[in-house]
Write a structure and sequence with these properties.
Elements (H helix, E strand, L loop, with lengths): L2 E4 L17 H4 L6 E4 L7 E12 L4 H10 L4 E10 L2 E10 L2 H12 L4 E7 L7 E3 L1
Antiparallel strand pairs: 1-2, 3-5, 3-6, 3-7, 4-5
Length: 132
């Protein structure tokens, strides 16, 4: 199915949410402002997400965090964790398939003893898409 995105409002195409009208073609007379969008998901496509982690340091915490992530069927691309004065902080780069998968990972890590916070953090550059 082909849907059209109305770009008649400046900047609308760059927002993550938008209103898609199925009869947009009849509503907009300005054909050069129409952009065709393919909404099909690509099987095997994953998204790289940076997770910020902090907690109370203890023996085996790093291993338990990685085990919790791995236990959700998630690939860990990298992990940078450090400890100072009994506090652990850092980030883990993971590959997730969708928003539901991301929440599954966050929930699993929150259950790890000693973890006080885990949240998605934007990377400094554009989002990286990895096709499996």
């Amino acid at each position: 199915m082909t849907r059209w995105w109305d770009t008649s409002r400046r900047g609308a195409a760059s927002r993550s949410t938008a209103t898609i009208a199925p009869n947009l073609l009849t509503l907009s007379g300005d054909e050069e402002r129409r952009v065709e969008i393919d909404w099909r998901e690509v099987e095997g496509e994953t998204f790289v997400v940076r997770l910020a982690v902090s907690g109370e340091d203890r023996r085996g915490l790093y291993a338990d965090i990685c085990e919790a992530i791995s236990g959700t069927g998630t690939n860990i691309r990298s992990a940078e964790l450090a400890s100072k004065d009994g506090v652990v902080f850092g980030s883990v780069l993971v590959e997730v398939e969708n928003h539901t998968h991301l929440h599954k990972v966050l929930k699993a890590v929150r259950k790890v003893k000693g973890v006080t916070e885990i949240a998605r953090r934007d990377s400094s550059g554009p989002a990286e898409v990895v096709v499996g």
